[in-house]
Amino acid sequence: MPRPAPPEQHDPADPRQAGGDLFGAELAAATASAAAGAATTGAAAEASGAAAAADEGAPLAERLRPRTLDEVIGQAHLLGPGKPLRVAFESGRPHSMIFWGPPGVGKTTLARLMADAFDAQFIAISAVLGGVKEIREAVAAAQQARQRGRRTILFVDEVHRFNKAQQDAFLPHVESGLFTFIGATTENPSFEVNGALLSRARVYVLEPLSHDDLERLFARALERGAGRPEAAAAPAAATAAGAAGAAGAAGTGAGVAEAAVTFDAPARERLIGWADGDARRLLNAIEIVVAAARAQGRTSVDAAYLETAMSQNLRRFDKGGEVFYDQISALHKAVRGSDPDASLYWLARMLDGGADARYLARRIVRMASEDVGLADPRALALALDAAEAYERLGSPEGELALAEAVVYMACAAKSNAVYVAWKRAGAFVQEHAPPRLMKGLGYGRGYRYAHDEEGGYAAGERYFPEGVEPQRFYEPVERGLETRIREKLAWQRERDSTQDDSAQDPRDPQEPNG
Question: Which architecture characterizes domain 322-498 according to CATH?
């Protein structure tokens, strides 16, 4: 029989508290007796945070998980002095909330820290694996904790995957205060979370980590040992010296640099860009590369080595970088310009470079609304269907649906009337507020805006990049709607030919008069 741990102790680093596996051990103990429940929920408190971090079998992302709020990297708009989440932590009164943001930005970490800050029992449920049964078991554990005079924080990861009935199961217990509900979702809670539950929780929007944030995280990962044997042997001293203070997870093997593996600046930039704002993605990549380098006896990593060390394509662009937006702008222009071949080229090039297909799916939906509009209302439905198909199939199968949507957008009739009307309405509502500086919209010098051209088509305009000969990938058949598309493309090519003829130098080599 394990010795019951003091109920006030709680270790947010306990990997058993990270997901749906919690219910099996903890909730069985909760239904058995209050004492046994306390032993289960507090089992990890038998070891300190440093000892938990010392588990070399845990992934680097887990070993570097922040143990205090000040160690969290990113989310300054929520965690800075006087900001909403900081105030919530300091108030001493937890409230139900929903964290909305992309993967790897700290949703689970913040929930764990919330439980730690309020000395609350932490129960985690994965909506991917759990159901009403697990919710009932969590309620039983929370009731046992209440009898011991302890709060409970119930964390539901991927809450948007629960259906209405499953989400409704939380309501009476949130109302009664049995537990504080914290949901995490990557989807817009306005559409994916029941209104009744949403009205009882405050939504906090978490943002992808910035380039500077990821640089700090990169440095932290390497500082967890920094190639010095004494750092691994004396984590307490390293913490006191500040070497591990930022990471907050001291312990033997807490970092990856103890093998004296270093990254040059280009290698760091490649990995940071590839991480795309996802802290877990970056730390997992660092761990993979360092392990490969150590196995080969390497002490340094450059950009070229990354391609061999990583099993995934590193031709990924920084989501906020100039190259990325140049290419998404090129895709948008090609669709707007009714060039299906160039549209397919840019879509294929971005997917090959590692661009997030879900991001591209969202941009395709935007293209349907902005550039096709009500000239062909089917475009929006097709774009949404393509996004849903990708969600179900993933890569590479789902990419075909995105390609189909892009070709349709490029070949569809174009209208920006709704877009223009919406902009005018927005300007009116803002009561002549100064317009925002819209830098980088793609209206480069010499670029012809297709909507301003005759027939909505800029005849003769090229959408392939310089040095790449225009290709003809799409050849519509003479069946169904493609018969009309075939005619439209033939009309466009005829206009292109006419435009090319008229674009010849008008200065004929004639002799001067007289």
Answer: Up-down Bundle (1.20)
